[in-house]
Amino acid sequence: MQIELSVVMSVYNAEPFLKEAIESILNQTFKKFEFIVVNDGSTDNSLDVINSFNDDRIVLIDQENIGLSRSLNKGVFISKGKFIARMDADDISLPERFALQLDFLRKNKDYVLLGSNIYFIDIKGKILDQTNLPCLNEDMKKSLPNIKLMHSSAMFLREFFFKAGEYPVEIPKYFEDKILWNKMAEFGKIATLPDVLVKYRLVPSSIFNLSNKQVQQLKDLSNKIIKNNYLLTEYDKFSIKEITRISKNQQIGNYFLRISFMHFKHNRRVKALFYVVKSFAINPFETDTLKMFMKILLPTRLLNFYRKLKQKPL
């Protein structure tokens, strides 16, 4: 059987969510694909979870830890499909994802990269928010280099993955996908389907749980690297490590803060207050946490006035 689609997932200590992630791939309405799972030196029971599935579509690579970018490059290198779908070990692909994305790419042969909108979910799988991303090629190209295309929603043409130079192995995580997407955009059109096709799980180790300052610093650094024709200096590599330095308590506190923000965005004030208090208890001196706390406590009328004031041009 000729394989049209290869799914590539790297796994590192993802035991709590891995079974659900794998099931979401195996239960797609589009059935004919290979599923390359790279167990990147997990020290928990991730390998046992993978081996518990008896499905001929799964191709397992069990290896010592080499990092996300190298693992993904290895998975794509051994793949046989014309199209590559990415998947993360703690996320969930909705059943129609592959069918809808393949249908678009088959009909629009000048596109090299495709994403979708996503739901944000918490550790327990409860939906917190959803994205409303730019969908058209023109809008996405205008946003470069700050492309908004969620990694585990991506489907792309294998041919252009290699033409773009693969995932940059110098970048351990955080914006390796952004670098690749910018390179791929040089070879063809890119788009995001308006459909929500992936549930993206927020966990403490996610990039979303760095502080606002750290996220902005990463954004500035990645833009500089792209502007410099993707050249990483030794100082850039050092900067990535310094920018992303964060304690376990800060990660957990920021995780609760992000959940609080999403509840507050949808006027779920009681839940927003609950999570910001949890964040405050862990990181009592974080400015972002204090600001969120004060916003929640503002009376609705005063808060609406504040929002309108922020939207007015100077």
From TrEMBL:
Residues 6-158 form the Glycosyltransferase 2-like domain. Coiled coil: none annotated. CDD domains: Glyco_tranf_GTA_type. Pfam families: Glycos_transf_2 (PF00535). Transmembrane segments: none annotated. InterPro entries: Glyco_trans_2-like, Nucleotide-diphossugar_trans. It comes from the Bacteria. This is Glycosyltransferase family 2 protein. The lineage of its organism: Bacteria, Pseudomonadati, Bacteroidota, Sphingobacteriia, Sphingobacteriales.
